[in-house]
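Encode chain A's predicted structure.
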Amino acid sequence: MTIFNTYSNLAGFAEFSERDLSLHSFLRSICPLRKKLAAQSYLLDAYLSAFFDLSSYIMTYEAANDGLAAISRLHQICRFAVDQAPFDEEDLPIYEKASHLLNTLPPLQERDTKIGLLILELADEFLASSLTQYLEQSEEGLRSYQDFYKLTALYERLSDLLGEPIVEQLNQELKNHFLIAPISAVFIQSFLNEVLHRLDTTDMESRRQYFQLILDSMQEDA
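Encoded structure for chain A:
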């Protein structure tokens, strides 16, 4: 049985079908905490409001777009390296590495094949650095919101009133209900979608797919 035979598992349906993702179920679970806080329940409401506001800033579609932009940038660098065209100072190290790797590729003539193989050779390194940069920029943007510090202050006050374990449990419930797809995973998957396309692309000259060319070269070196 292949991985695609159980598509619901691959798509994550089985995992999430076992979890209670009901919005109303979550809201009902908040009611006992509000009752316990009594006259200070406004602190919990303010905490939830700040969480909702900050969480709406974390856009998965932006993470997907940025992941796609990263692989597009790598494609551009590799294209310039194959064409021996000058490139931006910012990406000079990866450009120079791509230029050096050109001499290690299989002796094929097709320009697109050379670009594709360079992308696959540099994908791991470029993904790691691009993801780090993306997460740093995302965190910086998140910390620029006033509600970021407001949330921290409210967390401390609620921990004093309810106990930190209860507030941590609340945090876990918030994450389970509203932050299901980590933005780093979305970024990586968007990047890898193009990598998958490259692996499956066929070189016109050799009639070999790019992944086969890489495996052939690896076997020769083994």
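The chain has a mean pLDDT of 88.
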